[in-house]
């Protein structure tokens, strides 16, 4: 607003000044023209009059001089007459007239000089007028520029008002840089969230398929349990009939024994009958024991099937919980993706949540890739365990094996396809990471002049650290290497034979221990190595 007011006031002042100058210039030019014309006319008139008067006076003077000489030659000087005095007076008057005419001539000359000065002033005023006209043209251009600047200023002010967190024009460039970082970070997070959502979607589909398979297995197990229960009931009824028949035969044997005790004559016949009855009774008892054993086996099978049904129900409940959990995770990721897309759309920005843009092939990304590969391997191991459990279940329940062969074959095919997909993904990740890491190392070598080798190891106290070994491309031997240990955000130099040299040790003391600047140390060492290499 201050700039706009100043521009408006300066424009108004310039317009007023230009109008005043135009008025003064017009009046001055008119007065100069009138004065010039008048002076020119007077000059011409005075020139003509002066010429006539001078010629007339010169002629009169010559004539009077001639007459005086003539008279003086005739009249003697001792007897001056009255006419001579009159003539002298007349001559004195003429002389005074001549002097007055000379003064007028001098005035005319002075006026002529004044006319020349006025001409010079007129020329100066004309040049000043031309400069004023040029200034007026510049003023119009300046007004256009001021108007354009005011429009741009209004546009920028509206833009600044629409940008959150910006109070002045100096905050715009850092704001745009921060917004660019935020956009890139949001796009990276959105990509990660979409990848995670796809993985969760795949896991959700697998969990739903496992749930359906578990439901079918539970239904088949229930059917088998119902059939086993029917068989057990049938066996129990048969066992009841056989026990009744056994009891009846025992009663018959008792009666026969009582009859044999009463009738002694028919012992041989009754003995044979008793033996036959006892044999049949033994057969029936054996049959009863076999039925009891088969009943026990059926009960054991039934209990085992019930345990399997319980396990399947537990698996079904676990899969249902897993499906719900994956659905919640999917909803959360969808909401996060929509939030990130909305932020990316209208450019929300929070200085508290601003993150530094990181390169793709960093340690965090490598660790995340390793964790992803480990998770895929764990999922593969779980799938193999499920497959082994299904095969064991098929071996245990041979009756139900024929019904689930097709399902198991389809499941095995699906799992093999998933395993192949996961292995391809793992190989692709490994290839991509290896390529990116190699590109990053080559770029570091070309940009900073050092070949960097990284390895992880543990200290004697068990603390894991990362060691970086730097080889300069200008080194004269392989022994010229720098070693640094990185732990929890702290980087320390490792003393070796190369850094123990007096010159290198002095640089370590100056740049690292005193100034706490490893980049300055490596840059100075690179320059010295380059000079040694080129000079040698």
From TrEMBL:
Where's it mainly located? nucleus
| One Pfam family matching this protein | MAD
**Entries under SUPFAM superfamilies matching the protein:** Mitotic arrest deficient-like 1, Mad1 (SSF75704)
Can you say where in the cell this protein is located?
Nucleus
- Which cellular component terms (GO) are annotated to the entry? kinetochore; mitotic spindle; nuclear envelope
Coiled-coil stretches are 4-49, 81-125, 197-432
Gene3D superfamilies, alphabetized:
1.20.5.170, 3.30.457.60, 6.10.250.90
Q: Quick one: a GO biological-process term for this protein? A: mitotic spindle assembly checkpoint signaling
Q: Carries keyword Cell cycle?
A: yes
Write the record's keywords in alphabetical order, separated by commas: Cell cycle, Cell division, Coiled coil, Mitosis, Nucleus
Family the entry assigns = Belongs to the MAD1 family.
Its protein name is Mitotic spindle checkpoint protein MAD1
Look up and give the organism this protein is from: Sesamum calycinum
Source species taxonomy: Eukaryota, Viridiplantae, Streptophyta, Embryophyta, Tracheophyta
């Amino acid at each position: 607003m201050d700039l706009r007011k100043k521009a408006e006031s300066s424009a108004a002042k310039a317009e007023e000044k230009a109008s005043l100058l135009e008025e003064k210039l017009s009046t001055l030019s008119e007065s100069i023209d009138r004065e010039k014309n008048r002076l020119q006319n007077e000059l011409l008139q005075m020139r003509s009059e002066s010429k006539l008067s001078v010629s007339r006076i010169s002629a009169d003077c010559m004539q009077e001089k001639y007459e005086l000489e003539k008279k003086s030659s005739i009249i003697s000087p001792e007897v001056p007459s009255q006419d001579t005095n009159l003539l002298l007076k007349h001559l004195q008057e003429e002389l005074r007239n001549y002097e007055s005419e000379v003064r007028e001539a001098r005035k005319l000359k002075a006026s002529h000089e004044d006319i020349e000065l006025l001409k010079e002033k007129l020329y100066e005023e004309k040049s000043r007028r031309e400069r004023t006209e040029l200034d007026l043209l510049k003023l119009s251009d300046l007004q256009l520029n001021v108007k354009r600047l005011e429009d741009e200023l209004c546009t920028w002010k509206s833009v600044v008002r629409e940008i959150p967190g910006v109070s002045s024009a100096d905050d715009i460039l850092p704001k745009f840089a921060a917004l660019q970082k935020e956009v890139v970070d949001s796009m990276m997070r959105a990509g990660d969230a979409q990848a995670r959502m796809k993985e969760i979607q795949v896991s959700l589909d697998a969990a739903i398929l496992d749930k359906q398979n578990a439901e079918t297995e539970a239904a088949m197990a229930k059917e088998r349990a119902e059939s086993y229960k029917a068989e057990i009931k049938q066996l129990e009824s048969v066992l009841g009939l056989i026990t009744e028949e056994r009891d009846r035969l025992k009663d018959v044997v008792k009666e026969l024994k009582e009859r044999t005790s009463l009738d002694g004559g028919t012992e041989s016949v009754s003995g044979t009958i008793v033996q036959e009855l006892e044999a049949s009774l033994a057969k029936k008892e054996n049959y009863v024991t076999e039925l009891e054993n088969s009943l026990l086996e059926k009960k054991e099978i039934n209990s085992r099937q019930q345990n399997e049904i319980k396990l399947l129900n537990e698996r079904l409940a676990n899969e249902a919980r897993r499906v719900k959990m994956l659905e919640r995770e999917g909803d959360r990721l969808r909401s996060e993706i929509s939030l990130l897309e909305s932020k990316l759309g209208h450019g929300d920005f929070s200085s508290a949540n601003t993150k530094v843009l990181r390169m793709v092939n960093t340690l965090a990304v490598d660790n995340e890739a390793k964790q992803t590969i480990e998770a895929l391997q764990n999922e593969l191991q779980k799938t193999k365990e499920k497959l082994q459990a299904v095969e064991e279940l098929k071996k245990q329940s041979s009756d139900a094996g024929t019904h689930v062969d097709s399902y198991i074959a389809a499941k095995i095919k699906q799992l093999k396809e998933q395993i192949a997909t996961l292995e391809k993904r793992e190989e692709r990740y490994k290839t991509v990471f290896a390529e990116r890491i190699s590109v990053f190392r080559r770029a570091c070598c070309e940009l900073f002049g050092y070949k960097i080798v990284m390895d992880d190891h543990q200290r004697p106290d068990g603390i894991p650290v990362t060691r970086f070994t730097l080889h300069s491309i200008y080194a004269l031997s392989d022994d010229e290497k720098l070693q640094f240990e990185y732990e929890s955000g702290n980087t320390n130099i490792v003393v070796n034979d190369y850094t123990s040299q007096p010159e290198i040790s002095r640089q370590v003391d100056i740049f690292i221990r005193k100034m706490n600047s490893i980049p300055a140390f490596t840059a100075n060492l690179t320059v010295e190595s380059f000079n040694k290499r080129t000079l040698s």
